[in-house]
């Protein structure tokens, strides 16, 4: 079945079949990335531009690796030294890049909806690499792939998403994705870090972390996004860690084979105990990073196949 969308702007509009199609393809790339020779010609001749208006390590690097491993020409636009610093608007920048005829544009922006707006102005395929508080679709896909490979399934799992739900695009994309695949999702957070209307995601809400973790298969911790906070959302970082930081004692309420996730970057001793973050029996944080490259390869290939100038894998090889 052809992938139904020209761009990947979020998970909200993806059908379960489309999600599983991307994960199945990514599974193959996990194996390829573990081989000594990692390069293919699938996207040879195509141009990918990464446009990151917000800082990033994992997402930007893995999109660059993903494009290069598939044989695309990959450019990273240096936003700070671009004409944006001279007052050029986001849309004018997008239209300027569009005139250079890229095939794939990967965009991260601090404003919710900015990537959707940009996608309306260009002819190429656009991937949302995280927009404001709205969505981070490839993060949810790589989280889903990590869970499926560890748990052997991606449905009927008890998943707790804990921490700064209010400012988190990762939480939103994960709530959409895991909800569509019939998992039971709990969010655990202080009331100040919960968005209004959280009920529409069909999640259970817990203020008490130990209650919320009871019987969980997966615990997903979120970074306290201090850079998005204007004012005091938590009494102090120390108090926050005491009530909402994950440590071995609190985790003992979850199932014995629970896995601990974090999208990164993580603040050790703020949302997660440092020793637990490095516990290879329970923490899958590094595995999430590995899955990120495979998922992004799957996304780039899938969107490339929908381009009007697509002539088949490696057609220009
Ligand atoms: N998870 C995530 O988006 O990390 P980066 O901000 O480092 O890309």
Textual characterization of the structure:
With 317 residues, the chain is α/β, with parallel strands linked by helices. Helix content is 36%, strand content 14%. The protein has eleven helices and nine strands. The chain has helices at residues 16-33, 58-69, 90-99, 114-119, 137-151, 169-180, 209-213, 237-244, 248-251, 274-277, 285-304; strands at 47-52, 73-77, 104-109, 125-131, 158-162, 184-188, 204-206, 218-221, 259-261. The protein has a five-stranded parallel β-sheet. Helix 1 (16-33) crosses helix 5. The two termini are 25 Å apart. Phosphoric acid mono(formamide)ester binds next to helix 2. Phosphoric acid mono(formamide)ester is lined by residues 56-59, 130, 139, 263-265.
Query: Poorly predicted ranges (pLDDT <50, ≥5 residues)?
Result: none
Largest sheet: 5 strands, parallel
SSE class: alpha/beta
Strand content: 5-15%
Principal-axes geometry comes out as globular
Mean pLDDT comes to 94
Task: Give the CA-CA distance, first to last residue.
Answer: 25 Å
Oligomer: single chain
State the helix count: 11
């Amino acid at each position: 079945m052809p992938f139904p969308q020209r761009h990947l702007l979020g998970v909200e509009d993806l059908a379960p079949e489309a999600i599983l199609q991307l994960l199945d393809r990514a599974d193959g790339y996990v194996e390829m990335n573990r081989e000594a020779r990692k390069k293919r010609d699938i996207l040879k001749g195509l141009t990918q531009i990464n446009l990151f208006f917000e800082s990033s390590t994992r997402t930007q690097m893995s999109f660059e690796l993903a494009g290069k491993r598939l044989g695309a020409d990959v450019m990273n636009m240096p936003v700070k030294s671009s004409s944006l610093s001279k007052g050029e608007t986001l849309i004018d920048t997008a239209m300027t890049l569009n005139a250079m005829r890229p095939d794939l544009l990967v965009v991260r922006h601090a404003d919710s909806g900015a990537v959707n707006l940009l996608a309306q102005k260009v002819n190429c395929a656009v991937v949302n690499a995280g927009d404001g508080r709205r969505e981070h679709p490839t993060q949810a896909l790589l989280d889903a792939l990590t869970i499926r490979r560890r748990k052997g399934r991606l449905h009927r799992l008890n998943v707790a998403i804990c921490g700064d739900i209010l400012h988190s695009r990762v939480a939103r994309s994960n709530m959409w994705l895991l909800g569509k695949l019939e998992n039971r999702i709990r969010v655990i957070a202080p009331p100040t870090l919960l968005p209004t209307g959280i009920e529409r995601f069909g999640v259970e809400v817990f203020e008490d972390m130990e209650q919320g973790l009871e019987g969980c298969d997966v615990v997903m911790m979120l970074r306290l996004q201090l850079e998005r906070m204007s004012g005091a959302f938590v009494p102090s970082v120390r108090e926050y860690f005491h009530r909402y930081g994950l440590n071995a004692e609190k985790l003992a309420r979850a199932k014995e084979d629970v896995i601990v996730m974090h999208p990164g970057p993580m603040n050790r001793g703020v949302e997660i105990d440092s020793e637990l973050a490095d516990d290879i029996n329970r923490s899958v944080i590094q595995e999430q990073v590995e899955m990120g490259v495979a998922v992004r390869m799957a996304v780039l290939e899938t969107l490339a196949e929908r381009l009007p100038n697509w002539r088949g894998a490696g057609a220009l090889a």
